[in-house]
């Protein structure tokens, strides 16, 4: 888990999924753990690197799987934020609600990324090293319906929990891009 938290964002999803079964590991889980270790062995030369740049910009990427947990059909939200060519923040977490569509799962993932973007923007602003941080951060996500929903002035949802996430993302004026 240390590798995933500190240096290897590429294994975050797998470690998160395996972590759900720590109290009741079966043979299939152990095989999956061995696959993660084999992957790490084969990619031991991969590391986080950062490039010197005059234009430091934070860019986020958000994604989700829809109903990916076989136990309760909850989705997993994942995001990564990059700056100077390397990851500076990443997370993969099971969603607390059960999404009823791919669009809802993607939108919840973007909400999680937006919360992190607000925190990152405040942190980086306090350092006074990135002047472009005053602009809205860009978050790329790949669901056309969710992007359209975020840019539409009307609210179509009937669920209060989803309305709150929708309004938070819109209020923070984070650019949402289909990418």
From TrEMBL:
Annotated CDD domains: RNase_HI_RT_Ty1 (cd09272)
Domain of life assignment: Eukaryota
Record protein name field: Retrovirus-related Pol polyprotein from transposon TNT 1-94
């Amino acid at each position: 888990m240390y590798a995933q938290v500190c240096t290897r964002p590429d294994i975050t999803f797998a470690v998160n999924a395996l972590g759900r079964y720590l109290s009741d590991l079966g043979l299939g889980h152990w095989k999956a753990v061995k696959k993660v270790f084999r992957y790490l062995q084969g990619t031991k030369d991969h590391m986080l690197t950062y490039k010197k740049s005059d234009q430091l910009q934070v860019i986020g990427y958000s994604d989700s799987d829809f109903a990916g947990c076989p136990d309760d059909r909850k989705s997993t939200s994942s995001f990564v934020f990059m700056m100077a060519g390397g990851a500076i923040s990443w997370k993969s977490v099971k969603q607390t609600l059960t999404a009823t569509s791919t669009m809802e799962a993607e939108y919840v993932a973007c909400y999680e990324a937006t919360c992190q973007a607000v925190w990152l923007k405040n942190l980086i602003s306090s350092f006074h090293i990135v002047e472009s941080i005053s602009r809205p951060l860009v978050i790329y996500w790949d669901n056309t319906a969710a992007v359209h929903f975020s840019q539409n002035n009307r609210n179509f949802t009937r669920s209060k929990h989803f309305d709150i996430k929708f309004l938070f993302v819109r209020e923070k004026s984070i650019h949402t891009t289909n990418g």
